Amino acid sequence: MSTPGSPVTLDLHDIQGNIVKAYSRYDYSHARYVLFEITDGQAGRGFIATLAERVTTSAPWGRGSTEERPESTLNVALTFAGLRMLGLPQASLLTFSPEFATGMRGRGAILGDDGPSGPERWDPVWRKPHRIHVLITINGVSRDAIETAYAFVTDITGRYRAGVRCLTGHRDPEGRNDMPYQAASAIEIDGKPTPKEHFGYTDGIGNPYFKGTGEHPENVLGGGKVTRRDATTRAGWEPLETGEFLLGYKDEAQEFPEAPMPPLLGRNGTYMVYRKLHQNVGSFNRYLDAVGTEYPGGKEALAAKFAGRWRNGAPVTTFPTEAEAEAFAQQWMAAKLKIQQTPKGPAREEAKAAFAQLNAKFVAFDYSKDLPGAGCPVGAHIRRTNPRGSLEFGEAFAFDTRGALTNRRRILRRGLPYGSVVDPQDDTGEHGIVFMALGANIRRQFEFVQQQWVNYGNDFRLGNDRDPIIGNHGTTPEGKGDGRMTIEAEPGGGRPPFLCGGMPRFVETRGGEYFFVPSITALRLIGEGMVDPT
Amino acid sequence: MPNEAGRAYGLTALCPIKHGAEAPQPGKPARSFAARTRDLLQDLNEAAESPMACVPNTYLCRFLVLDNVAYQGDPAKLDRLRSSYLVFVADLHAGKKSEEGLRRYLEGMWEHAEPTVRSLWEHCVGFDTVSSSDAFVRYVKRCQVENTLYFNGSTDEPLAEQLKNLYLKQEFSRFAFEHQGKKGAELQAAFGQFLTRTRPHDLSGPTWKPGARTLDDAVIDPNPPPQYLRSVPTGASR
Q1: B17, CA 20 to 30 Å: which among A44, A107, A263, B111?
Q2: Residue A413: inside a domain, yes or no?
Q3: Contact A32, A183 (CB under 8 A)
Q4: For residue A176, is it within any domain?
Q5: What is the mean pLDDT of residues A100-113?
Q6: What interface predicted TM-score (ipTM) does this complex get?
Q7: Which has more pLDDT, B120 or B1?
Q8: Partner residue facing B237 (CB), from A476, A496, A499
Q9: Which of residues 466-485 of A touch B (CB under 8 A)?
Q10: What are the Cα distances from residue A187, in Å, to A199, A307, A412?
Q11: Which pLDDT does position B27 carry in this prediction?
């Protein structure tokens, strides 16, 4: 058992990939998500045992490692119904968290999956949660790599067809609603994959950094938890406890998280929320066009205030004007280019260091100089979902640490966009994000953020206001959106705050489920039918 | 001071419910007095509006029937009470002279909600002798339990002030949305109309109706202004 402050060493070969390291950092710009129903426990266990041999782990690739980055990855997650079909003993099943056992659909009231986000609007495959048992996620560097891995999965499925069936019922961009998989891929611009999502924002910038992920310690900047020091420096951050993201390790309460029994079943595993989120691109663009003409900063500034980042990713609290954000982006690109153009040696290391310093500006900030929200609005998307210590509201030492109300609400975000936008003024069609959130406790982390911080505003002293971009805005009796947001002004600056009203719902749920992502050991135990809680 | 937080008062009263049951009615199983009292409380949940909303200076109140008291610990134990109790808990504005304020509050309760009071307390021990507001005050005070850890979740202003406050806040936020971007004279004129219509210093109205939840069904005004001043705006409505 580790003691406080001691380093955590993780057996990365036992932890599934995409948890400790995000695949998006390794040019996996394509993905395919496949759901399975298990109708026979024995066949199902054989299926899992076979997959366990091929599951991609978190072991490092490339330089300094014996392993090369594969062309494609393969990972496995299970639902509660799946664990039951796989024959887990009742005594083990009862030790999984209640929200996981209930499933995403059953938690709809907490998540705000109502109206246009209701289950009756979901892709057909997600409407029968009792049949969803296994999720296989394939990530690949190319479409060919995806096809090869998919063929492999199809082959294994065929081998266990006596008791394993691929579920159809995913919608696709051609209007079919009986597809056997959900495709996702990075949005390409000029033929190159980008980190953009369909509203035009650069996505996936900030992600938690926790103990044991020591490969790039500089990632603690912005990724860890805030201290009371300067957030633009390393001293301003400490790594989060491993147990916030992986079962079997100490968490931010200095406790071992509640986890399934026996301990080997939970250790090195975690929970995952999968949500297919449709983006009403037409409504979003129309709203920005209309309100952007009234907003003093214009349309792009309005988009930046909604998100808390300019669409190029620069945080609006650090770069208050579009010109500054643009200049920063250019500097960043130039620094990146310089690394490529500098020959190996000390000069390249210098270029790398310069780039790292610039790169940190995307994440190494907090709101301590921006408490009233004149830079980044208090209700902006990234400030809501990760308040970075601002919930002390400037009252120093109100809590043990500035981040005391944030550190237990962090989530690892994974996933990719799906579909493409054909007409930027059109809401219909297939385009959105497959959003995945990983964490040791769905209730405390993802559900809390969704319910209290995205779909409610009281913690930010914003009454009933919701997240402008992903909040589940309702409709007035006249049929207008009822979402609203205050864009705060500089106190004493002589300008009034700007009020955005009449926001419709820009993001709608189209399906999803809660999954358990077992360790490789646990997959083997499940596959061999050896789970013994006694 | 127990029971007090500034000018707010936290009343807790435990009123014993008689043992026994109602006389059986043909075709209907008899209910114990405690169960009948609980039935009445549960019916209140279904009422469109709380009968306590009309009692002046009620910040918040709650009724419940207390049976036995469970202690969760090692060893767990169950305290068997001598009877079931009707528990009445109220957060109220009492003013600086708190006991005087409590008396006024209970008198107001008798005056404005006597039928509810009579039906809820009907099966309580000794309540059959209560037939006046004075007697009701004496009865509740006899049942009062000291509240030593009182926390009031709102300000301690009189309720009428708080309701006007809430009303103005909602109306002002609506005003701000509707007049955003307007310049000097136009804005000033509109604000003048807003003041005429909302009468910020007039607690009698327009104001927030006690117990109401949204601005659209909340506004009451016993002395409405002439029609030409009543330009009720539409638009953002939360």
Answers
A1: B111
A2: no
A3: yes
A4: yes
A5: 98
A6: 0.76
A7: B120
A8: A476
A9: 476, 478, 482, 484
A10: 11, 19, 21
A11: 87
